[in-house]
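REQUEST FORM: STRUCTURE PREDICTION
Request ID: SP-0412
Submitted by: Lab K.M.
Chain count: 1
Length (residues): 216
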Amino acid sequence: MQTQFCSVGNIRPAARITQNEVQQSLKKTNSMKTAQLRIAKMGTAVMALFLSITMNAQVNGWNPELESDSKEALKTIIEKSPKLESFKKEAYGYAVFPRITKGAVGIGGAAGNGVVYKGDVIVGGSHLKQATVGIQFGGQQYVEVIFFENEEVFEKFTNGKLKFNAQASAVALKAGAAIDAAYQNGVAVFTATKGGLMYEASIGGQHFKYESKETE
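STATUS: Completed
RESULT:
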């Protein structure tokens, strides 16, 4: 006796349905593995970049290259945004971080070394650190310049007591904006891409460790 199978309407043989499901499942599994591998590689690269800048913090001795990089970075962003020249001339002091590395894989952070000026005279160096929490991924490098309006806030910075709150953001200069409007609690902060273009960036949680040039 022969067993006969028939199809009714859109019902297909069970064997064919099972095979399709297996193929689709394999495709999804392979796609997920590929995506996870890419994310892992990108995460490793970002964290390696972040750790490299953190581990290479300036220690024991002045760094002439950092000084040169800071001057070049400040010159570049002033050329792109001439209004910053007014801050430079009128500020009690300022700090220039020519290369801040920011990385994030879930929990992010940023770090960088900078040069501190009182007037136009270099008086020391500073190490910046920042921790951020939230859903995030990626990495970038940028320049940050901090202008100090008076001696009181400058000493607060050099004493390691200056820290930006979670809502703090750097200022992006716009045409017609008042120069003094950028100061908040005696501090004006600007960030720029490596090409000198100004943009707003979150600086919440940044804190600084200052070291006098005389003791380095």
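NOTES: The CA atoms of residues 8 and 179 lie 79 Å apart.
Reviewed by: T.R.
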